[in-house]
Amino acid sequence: MTLCVVMASQKGGVGKSALARSLAVVFAEAGWKVLIADFDVEQLTCVEWQARRLANEIEPELDVMSFKSPKRMEKLRDSYDVVIEDGPGYADKHTETLAGQAHAVFLPTGVSLDDLRPTLTLADELVAAGVKAKDIAIVLARTGRSQRQEADARGYLRPFGYHVLGPTWPQRDGFAAALGSGRAGREVANPALRATAEALDQAMLDFVASRKRLPKKLPSPRGLRG
């Protein structure tokens, strides 16, 4: 059985594709056969990122393909150990299908109410469609340097009961430069930024490992327990 992880959002520009690429590199570094399924066919962010990665001969290698529908992707899914499914910038009719088949669903969001409210709406819609709430994790992304703003965002989310990861994906020029060269957040040159990215990667891995429907007989990447 292939491990499936979905990155979804109700708004674009919240770091969804950045998280998909970082988590994919984690698994690739551990020797897993990895596919990023890019469902954002208008932007093709991950597809273009892979082209830069190949041009710069960055390892480890991983596959990235674009898909218009889950059915087309399902024909290839069993050929991989893990598929990271990067949904479109706005949730569409395929988002519920992808989330319903996934072992874990990550919803990155900015910290303003303009981002938080649509994220919660999407989470509620996924649950109404049959996705288990415990399989959903919200990730605070594109955060600034204001601890008060982050704390307010967490306080706003807390009553709704969804799991919110501790580490965040901050808005930093170094991350943008790394992604622009075909690297993931954990491959950035700056040690402090790299530690930040690795902490978030570890939190995502820990959440994936906490799911009870994980495939068995797969290799265990560094930090993935269970």
The number of helical elements comes to 8
Spans of at least 5 consecutive residues with low confidence: none
Radius of gyration in whole Å, from Cα?
16 Å
Mean pLDDT: 90
Largest sheet, in brief, is:
8 strands, parallel
Run of helices and strands? EHEHEHEHEHEHEEHH
Number of strands: 8
SS strand fraction? 15-25%
First-to-last CA distance = 16 Å
> How would you sum up the global shape?
globular
Q: Helix share of residues?
A: 40-55%
What class do helices, strands and sheet pairing give? alpha/beta
Report on this model:
It is globular and about 45 Å long. Helix 1 crosses helix 8 (about 190-210). Helix content is about 45%, strand content about 15%. Strands 1, 2, 3, 4, 5, 6, 7 and 8 form an eight-stranded parallel beta sheet that branches. By secondary structure, the protein is α/β, with parallel strands linked by helices.
Task: Give the topology, please.
Elements: E1 3-7, H1 16-29, E2 34-38, H2 45-55, E3 63-66, H3 70-77, E4 82-86, H4 93-101, E5 104-109, H5 113-128, E6 136-143, H6 147-157, E7 163-164, E8 169-170, H7 173-180, H8 191-210
What's this model, at a glance?
The chain is an alpha/beta fold. The chain contains 8 helices and 8 strands. The longest helix has 20 residues, at 191-210.
Features:
16% strand; 43% helix; 226 residues; alpha/beta; eight-stranded parallel β-sheet; 8 helices; single chain
